[in-house]
């Protein structure tokens, strides 16, 4: 199998794992799915590093392994121990969400197709997937009512932009990736802390109940 | 000299923050805090002074940079950071005395206050567009604690919306950043240069215009969310009303502008890359929409801080409209409005701090007779509201008039009529608020008298700025604004 085929194959796995994160009702399992997805992301970084001679991506795959495969899922599971594991209601049925997801993936590939002039032409599928991942994360935030699920949505969006970054800007100075990754981790940490406080005050993570501030 | 300032400016609040976090005694933390805000104010003024006349400085291999645009932001961060920081002392002591917070919370408050200042400074002096993005995202994370400072249910709810919506919005800005970078990289083939704004602006006309358009849309959505443009503004009234009043002053007065100025950097690139029509039309639409929607919401709110928060959305809309009008006059008006709004809105938010300390509520239907209860606070509140409503003799009137004039000169007749109509609605809403809260008869059992001198001195200074800029624009400030306009238009 050629290098681009490997990358594109792995990229498609990202879509599958995203759907699993979005649709798994048990949050601990969703955290494992997220960890799995991050592992796929790490493998993509590695294959890009090998096949496209993108050396900086060796370091990226290492930092992503530490932070996204282990650290972030661990932080989420730690919070889950305090606030329970069940998701509760969702705004849409699974079938409706899947329908939306299919539409978003198609849209992403259409957008990626317009990037004719760039180096990504070879891995166009991966480019499409990175945008799709971003949009699927957004879909998760908009359709799920559970605060923890919305955090997962943010994590998916973040994985999506991380892949776009790897495809379009892997040669950028190292400080760039450090800055962006640090922010992403702190964002998750802060969201988890606030979610813990919300659970303490409202007794639920269903965001439909957070209606004290209106208008 | 200027280069050293670029290192010292972020270092001072960072060190102050770290010290505040580790020192337990709040008396000592207060001393550290005062030293920190004073140092920051002096350094800010020093940098602004050395930038006058179109000077620029680089530091850290071109990663840090200061020009006229930076100067405006640094001026605001320095002065508003100092004044609302000073105001914080009396405000927090009051909260401590009334059992709202514990001694330990005060150290944390000051720690995050300075961390927040640090992130804003970083966003102002970043030349690397990825670091610029990271700094703006970091402002959200640094200020999230301030929004959720009180242990109320509502504070947690506001902090949640704030972090989630802003982070998601900013994810779009990250895409815009990556697109701009890869666009530039295919032009120069130099990874370091393709990340630097000063290089991007030089090669703007070589960039692929289609890709730049796409990038600008992402940037507008992303930084627009953080700046509070409608329809991405929904987190703003919650966050700005739930934060402690001096933090609200900083959030509304300064932070919104940091995000807006990040967008202005891309606006400058887009002007050269894709021409003026595309970015200006977008800004005009978002600007007018923000003014219009906010004007109605100011009218229907009961909470005074929420009214003020919506008023911030309105004024960010006016600034965006000024940028949308474009040209030297439109952009000048937008920048002048940026400064005017910062001064006036920090005055107002700090004043609401005095009001809530006195009345124990933010509900406009319960606050009556401020004129009799606390005449000075009442006077400052009324003056601030008159100013923010856009009435002479205060500063905001001047920049609003300038925006309208610029628009009419550019042939934007109907958009300006629309703007004027929205401004009238907002004006009415704010005048009603004055007549209800400042006049009227106060509750019988409320003790008379002002809260404390520490809560009045910074407000007095802000009032002097507000009134002064209403009648006279000092030459250095005029120069500063001209420099900033030059940066955007590439003169």
TrEMBL record, chain A:
Keywords: Cell membrane, Membrane, Transmembrane, Transmembrane helix. It is found in: Cell membrane. Gene3D superfamilies: 1.10.287.3510. This is Hydrogenase-4 component E. It is a multi-pass membrane protein. GO terms for cellular component: plasma membrane. The keyword Cell membrane applies. The chain crosses the membrane at residues 6-22, 29-51, 57-77, 98-119, 125-142, 178-199. Its main location: membrane. It comes from the Bacteria. InterPro entries: HyfE-like, NUOK/Mnh_C1-like.
């Amino acid at each position: 199998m050629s290098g681009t085929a490997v990358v594109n194959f792995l990229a498609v796995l990202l879509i599958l794992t995203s759907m699993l994160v979005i649709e798994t009702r048990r949050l601990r399992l969703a955290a494992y799915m997220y960890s799995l997805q991050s592992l796929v992301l790490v493998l993509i970084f590695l294959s890009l590093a090998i096949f496209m001679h993108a050396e900086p991506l060796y370091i990226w795959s290492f930092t992503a392994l530490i932070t996204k495969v282990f650290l972030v899922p661990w932080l989420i599971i730690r919070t889950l121990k305090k606030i329970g594991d069940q998701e509760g209601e969702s705004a849409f049925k699974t079938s409706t969400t899947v329908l939306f997801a299919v539409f978003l993936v198609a849209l992403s590939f259409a957008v990626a197709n317009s990037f004719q002039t760039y180096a990504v032409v070879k891995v166009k599928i991966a480019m499409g997937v990175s945008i799709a991942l971003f949009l699927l994360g957004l879909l998760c935030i908009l359709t799920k009512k559970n605060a923890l699920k919305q955090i997962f949505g943010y994590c998916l969006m973040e994985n999506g932009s991380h892949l776009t970054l790897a495809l379009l800007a892997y040669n950028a100075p190292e400080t760039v990736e450090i800055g962006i990754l640090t922010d992403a981790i702190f964002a998750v940490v802060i969201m988890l802390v606030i979610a813990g406080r919300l659970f303490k005050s409202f007794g639920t993570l269903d965001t439909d109940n957070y209606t004290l501030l209106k208008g | 000299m200027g280069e050293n300032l670029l290192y010292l400016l972020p270092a001072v609040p960072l060190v102050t923050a770290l010290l505040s976090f580790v020192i337990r005694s709040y008396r000592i933390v207060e001393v550290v805090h005062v030293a920190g805000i004073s140092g920051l104010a002096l350094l800010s003024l020093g940098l602004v002074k050395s930038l006058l006349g179109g000077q620029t400085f680089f530091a850290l291999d071109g990663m840090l940079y200061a020009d006229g645009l930076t100067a405006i932001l640094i001026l605001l961060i320095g002065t508003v950071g100092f004044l609302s920081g000073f105001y914080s002392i009396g405000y927090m002591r009051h909260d401590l005395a009334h059992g709202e917070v514990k001694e330990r919370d005060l150290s944390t408050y000051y720690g995050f206050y300075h961390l927040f200042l640090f992130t804003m400074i970083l966003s102002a002096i970043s030349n690397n567009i990825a670091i610029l993005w990271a700094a703006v995202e970091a402002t959200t994370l640094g200020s999230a604690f301030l929004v959720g400072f009180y242990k109320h249910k509502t504070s947690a709810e506001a902090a949640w919306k704030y972090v989630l919506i802003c982070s998601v919005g900013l994810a779009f800005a990250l895409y815009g950043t990556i697109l701009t970078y890869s666009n530039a990289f295919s032009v120069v083939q130099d990874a370091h240069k393709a990340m630097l704004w000063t290089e991007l602006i030089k090669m703007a006309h070589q960039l692929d215009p289609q890709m730049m358009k796409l990038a600008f849309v992402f940037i507008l959505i992303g930084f627009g969310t953080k700046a509070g443009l409608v329809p991405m503004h929904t987190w703003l009234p919650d966050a700005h009303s739930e934060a402690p009043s001096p933090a609200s002053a900083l959030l509304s007065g300064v932070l919104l502008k940091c995000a807006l100025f990040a967008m202005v950097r891309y606006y400058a690139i887009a002007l050269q890359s894709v021409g003026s029509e595309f970015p200006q039309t977008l800004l005009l639409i978002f600007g007018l929409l923000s003014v219009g929607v906010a004007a109605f919401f100011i009218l229907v709110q009961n909470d005074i801080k929420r009214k003020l928060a919506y008023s911030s959305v309105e004024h960010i809309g006016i600034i965006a409209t000024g940028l949308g009008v474009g040209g030297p006059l439109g952009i000048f008006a937008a920048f002048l409005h940026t400064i005017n709004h910062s001064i006036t809105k920090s005055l107002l938010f700090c004043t609401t701090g005095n009001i809530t300390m006195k009345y124990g509520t933010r509900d406009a239907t319960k606050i009556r007779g401020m004129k009799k209860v606390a005449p000075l606070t009442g006077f400052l509140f009324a003056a601030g509201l008159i100013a923010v409503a856009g009435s002479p003799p205060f500063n905001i009137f001047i920049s609003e008039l300038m925006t309208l004039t610029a628009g009419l000169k550019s042939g934007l007749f109907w958009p300006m009529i629309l703007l004027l109509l929205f401004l009238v609605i907002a004006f009415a809403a704010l005048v009603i608020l004055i007549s209800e809260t400042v006049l009227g008869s106060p509750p019988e059992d409320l003790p008379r008298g002002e809260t404390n001198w520490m809560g009045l001195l910074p407000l007095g200074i802000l009032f002097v700025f507000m009134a002064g800029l209403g009648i006279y624009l000092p030459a250095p400030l005029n120069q500063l604004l001209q420099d900033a306009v030059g940066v955007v238009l590439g003169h």
